What does this fold into?
Amino acid sequence: MSGRSSEVRRLDALVVGAGFAGLYSLHKLRQMGLCVQVLEAGSDIGGTWFWNRYPGARCDVESLEYSYSFSEELQQEWVWPERFAAQADILRYINHVADRFGLRPFIRTDTRVVSAVFDKVACLWTVESARGEVFKAPFCIMATGNLSLPRVPDLPGLETFRGNWYHSGLWPKDGVDFSGRRVGIIGTGSSGIQMIPVIAAQAKHLHIFQRTANFSAPAVNRPLTPEVDRRHKERYAYWRDQAKQTSFGISGHPPPTKSALDATPAERNRDYETKWDTGGNISFLYAYNDLLVNAEANETASEFVRTKIRSIVHDPKVAELLQPRDHPIGTKRLCLDTGYFETFNRDNVTLVDIKSDPIVVVTPTGLRTKAREFELDDIAFTTGFDAITGALFDIDIRVEGGSRLCDKWANGPRTYLGLMTAGFRNLFMITGPQSPSVKSNMVASIEQHVDWIAGCLQHMRDQCAVQIDADEAAENKWVDHVGRVADATLYPRANSWYVGANIPGKPRVFTPYVAGLDKYRQICDGVAADNYRGFILSKAPVDQTQSRQA
Ligand code: FAD
Ligand code: N01
It folds into this structure.
């Protein structure tokens, strides 16, 4: 297709984003015979795995689980080289999927969507790109990602910096050679913790600017042997089915039944050691059944990790700074690392505590904290994302002559099941706010959402319905429910991106649904089976509604 600004394309559905979610949406809807166009801001497909090419980037859900389940042939034939796949392998996989299922002709890259406007009378979404291209379709699916809007802090002087600076989520395609360079990394979340050991091994000197210490456990990554691969694939359908019955959408981790407080200190220590050696964050947080709901129980696991840090890091002052004390373990995403804490024993690595001595300004030759000056050739920001709502707010989503999404959600997102938001007809979100999304194996959550939406569209077809909206009462009930579930856990206690704490001015609302993907799937299936309870379907474009209350 050309990039003419006057182009108008009529389609059955538009999908924004070509990551795991956008690609599966395209495949599924095309299987239903729909005419679909995917619009992607990046110059290629892959989403998270296209953008986050920083050194050390890999998944923290095991590769055999963090992959599509919709095609038995695909899952049998694809071979993952490692237990936790590296970014390049995941991107290779996504590209394979696109080719294998003939998806590329329907994806338009280098196309950033800037607005999506619904015309109630014509029952059409009009979507416009940054280059002025216009696309129209009755249905619009936002597959824009939860972690797709990178956040570079507003540091004065950044524009004067004469070196190079990078963000983990916008990493250069051709990589960066840090050999012989003085590098500064700002941020110690999952991205920083993965990147730091790799860059430390390359750079002349690495300064790590830490605002908040973070919990991390060993990934225990390793090559995936043919034997492990064969055994898993012999029963792949079984493992996928098992995964569906878990709260994280990951098989092989039976839910714990015992409280940490019912174990003796010696038993706890033994159990945590076993989990530590096994690797994986689900494994560690599944040691006991109350680590995420009981502060006293959680403290036993938190202290175990602090003890590990003290035993790994030689300099006691550095070890003290690296021990998280401001949030219970697991209430921010538990990082997985390969040699993170060990890195602080290197002579070419310095930890800088920017909580006590904050960064004041970036200078042409480095940066200055309140008390010190640092000479740097390169700065890598691993400062995260405007998560969950960021990419949605980046698009002007509105109803013609009516509400704007950013106004409706000014005090926090409001959705029904994280799938739709009342008043914005025929607009679906994949892994939207108030769905399990980032608190699950996201590929599993994506498949669940896309399958549900496809089922819904089929139902509408069968009923000759042309519009669907969420009922406001059902939405209110869902929002309350999501909040109540979160409040019964320790999650809201952390200043995490789950509550928007990393973005100045963002309302503090814990957004993911943490009752579990298994329970959530049952709820969604129940809603569908009950004639799409809580949704309003209409056979005509304007307001001749057939309403069903939740
Ligand atoms: P994305 O992959 O984010 O894709 C969204 C796409 O939409 C992007 O390509 C973006 O460019 C495009 N887009 C956004 N806005 C617009 C617009 N306005 N116009 C056009 N295009 C737009 N999850 C796990 O479950 N396990 C993991 O191990 C894991 N590891 C992760 C590691 C990193 C470094 C990061 C950042 C995230 C990780 N995640 C992980 C979460 C990860 O985002 C999801 O697993 C998954 O890749 C999300 O797929 P998606 O298609 O929903 O979104
Ligand atoms: O981002 P983050 P991320 N000045 O927001 C600091 C997924 N993921 O890209 O805690 C100084 O977690 C901030 O400090 P503080 C995963 O879901 C997965 O690392 O706010 N520092 C923090 O240390 C993850 O949760 C993997 O005080 C500033 C860091 O930057 C999500 O993506 C790998 C700052 C940001 O941490 C996001 O992870 C990578 C400022 N102004 C990502 N602003 C896997 O392993 C922020 N910080 C699968």
Summary: The first helix runs from residue 20 to 31.
